[in-house]
Amino acid sequence: MCAVLLKNVSIIYDSYSRRLLRGRDIFVGDNGIESILEGESPSGSKRDFVVDCSGKAVTQGLGNSHTHLGMTLLRGHADGLSLRQWLNDRVWPIERRLKPEHIRTGVELGLTESIRAGVTGLTDMYFSSQEVARAAASSGLRVLVAPAIFDTGVPDSSLNNCLSVINSQPVGGLVSFALGPHSIYACSEETLMKVGEFSRAKSLRVHIHLAETRLEQVECERSKGMREVEYLRKMDLLSKRLTAAHAVWITKQEANLLGKAGASSVFCPVSNSKLAEGGISPVPELLAAGTNVSFGTDGPASNNSLSLIETMKFGSLLLSHSRWDPQSVTPSVCLEMATKNAYAAMDFPENHLAPGGPADLIAFDLRQPGMLGALSADFPNLLVYSGPSVDHVIVNGQPVMLDRRILTMDEEEIKNRFESTVSNIYQT
Ligand SMILES: [Zn+2]
Fold first, then answer.
1. Domain at 62-345, CATH homologous superfamily
2. Of 158, 238, 299, 374, which is the most buried if we count CB atoms within 10 A?
3. Is the pLDDT of residue 44 over 70?
């Protein structure tokens, strides 16, 4: 462990309390944030890193609640398609060629991209999850790994495979595991019931794609005689441990069921729009019902970026625009969703920007040209709408990126390996 001093921070914004402080020093030690002080620093406390944060803002790191980092390998391979075509014609044929070492390389690139985007915690659902977990552990980020579960003959993705990954030796780092049934349409009733049993027995979270398209809901009603959220209730999966990615095509009644159960949903507006899904997750209704709503970029083949700030901006504007209400989901609510709600959806510690907090922090330059504007500019609006590039990332008190240099991973080596990996995959 090491001790860090963030010195002369111009603005500290706590998205949990929506409180803003100016001109403070943040002391970080083995147990997270020790103190936030104004003026003279206490003498005698040796620091491994002293980071000058004058002209910079510090806020909580962002949580990307739904992604598939290995899909960096497919970025740009399947643009301009709707979900079924995207999956059947472009994504699955390439995924069948992927070996664990390919996925590890794709995940590592995605982790460096996430660090640069100010993401300090994320959920990854994919295959070869042992490799995903090892890569995640080396990054220094908090990662909830959800091994994907299919009953449709996808190799390496049975429920037993998922359980063996979860039960295998701990990989270290800040890695934890969840159960990842891909979706209602890719998993049998028996599998979903067993997922529920394991989730209850082992206190594991369940991460699932839910009601992403209208067709999915139509097929669910046709084959099961009920809508998807009702079906999850029948499978005994509606609980605080459930995270439902997308939740686009749901009724108000389904939103109420999710909220009543204390479940989490993940708003993935860029991915939903790129795949032309024709709907927008009813975020205001979900929040009003008590659902823990956060943001996800989804994978880099359907976004094609891992920038959560871009996703927040797009989501906020999409809701404002479609509802004729510029206050529909404001940037300060977006920041709360992307920090407090995201961490809760992953069972990560409460990331208070105060003494005792775990010190998952990001810092960015307030004087980069795109951040300069009117003196009256509101801080959350500035962050979400103007989209700064991030300079420093600290996770669990440990520097992960300082002055835009990633300390935990060899970015150049990963990029080189990534390039040779993709030429290998697409040439065979
Ligand atoms: Zn997804």
1. Metal-dependent hydrolases (3.20.20.140)
2. 299
3. no
